[in-house]
Amino acid sequence: MTEVTTQAAIIPLDNVDPVLVEQLLDRAFEPERRTRTAYKVREGMDWLPGLSFAALDENGMLVGTIQCWPVALTDPEGRAHPMIMVGPVAVLPEQQQRGFGKALVAASLACIDPAAALPQVMIGDADYYGRFWAFSARPTRGWRLPGPWEPDRLLVRCDNPAVLPAEGMLGPWRG
């Protein structure tokens, strides 16, 4: 993988026209993306502006985005444990393998306050996200989602995974 060029920029996502963001997501994931389980997990929620970014190439063109969402794991006793859902991480197909996605994830995670960090959860490749940012599927084995998912792809990142509930349903955080 080559690194992002020095002329590239990572900017707050709320500085980008939402229509352009939706067009990029359609190109990166196909319009059927809205039927995926990740959309059900964050249904009805607004993305978090302080953790969501866009990547612009050296010509100032939108080539990638990352959004983060407020979600919660509701344990068997009905207690909601707030978390941050990371993703989607989207990069235009012709711009992939240039480091834009990695730069977007790094920018987003760097903005999480370590003094009050909520666990971060995502659906993604465990080898990739584990290698760079310590995401793991180990703590999520007893978790459920509101739709089909591959258990090895439900990942969480937390300084102390022992505090995470062993079981629960992941969904929007209405707290």
Automatic annotation (TrEMBL):
Where in this chain does the record put each N-acetyltransferase domain?
A: 8-167
| Signal peptide per UniProt | none
Tell me which domain of life the UniProt entry assigns to the organism this sequence originates from.
Answer: Bacteria
Pfam families, alphabetically? Answer: Acetyltransf_9
Q: Which InterPro entries match?
A: Acyl_CoA_acyltransferase, GNAT_dom
Q: Which Gene3D superfamilies match?
A: 3.40.630.30
In Swiss-Prot or TrEMBL terms, this protein is called N-acetyltransferase
